[in-house]
Design a protein that fits this description.
Elements lengths: L2 H16 L5 E4 L11 E4 L3 E5 L5 E13 L7 E12 L5 E8 L4 E8 L2 E10 L4 E8 L7 E7 L9 E5 L11
Antiparallel strand pairs: 1-6, 2-3, 3-4, 4-5, 5-10, 6-7, 7-8, 8-9, 10-11
């Protein structure tokens, strides 16, 4: 970031803090592109880019030890894998995606079929884990299908695993 940008952004940040406003990024639609729209969470070792689609959530996962290249600056980090969560409800209304800069918690909130849904994501540094919390304001409304796929970056490619609401068949796992 150049000096002019820093000089411009610093007073804005200080003004927001001084007025008691929380610093947060707000969006009214899910991300379509991970580079410019998906919102990150991370703790220095684990991370995720969260897309936030109400019915077909996608998290791109990263872990610091996945590196390709050599010890010099000629390598790059590799994607750990992708996690998809398909939720079975109608079209979302009142959608909001938000990353609170003060707490480092990402939230997605919307309603569908008369039910209020909320998701919260955070990366805990002390516990070294990513936390995904999904809630609904009515019981037994979080029906989901989960799939995880290891990035095909090396010879030990793990393929895709899936889990579907407590049933187990073949390659499907119980969640």
């Amino acid at each position: 970031m150049n000096l002019i940008s820093r000089a411009f952004l610093a007073p804005l940040a200080l003004a927001a803090i001084a007025s008691g406003q929380r610093l947060a990024l707000h969006y009214n639609q899910p991300a379509e592109d991970w580079q410019s729209q998906a919102l990150p969470i991370g703790n220095g070792r684990l991370g995720a880019m969260i897309f936030g689609d109400a019915r077909h959530e996608h998290l791109q996962l990263n872990e610091i030890s996945l590196w390709t290249g050599d010890e010099k600056d000629t390598g790059s980090y590799q994607n750990l894998g992708d996690l998809w969560l398909d939720l079975t409800h109608g079209a979302p209304q009142g959608y909001e995606r938000r990353l609170d800069i003060d707490t480092a918690i990402q939230q997605i909130a919307y309603s569908a079929d008369g039910i209020a849904y909320r998701r919260e994501y955070l990366a805990s540094a002390p516990q070294q884990l990513l936390v995904l919390r999904y809630t609904a304001d009515k019981p037994r409304r979080l029906q989901r299908h989960i799939e995880a796929e290891r990035c095909p970056c090396g010879a030990d490619y793990g393929g895709r695993q899936s889990a579907d609401g407590g049933r187990q068949t073949g390659q499907r796992l119980t969640v």
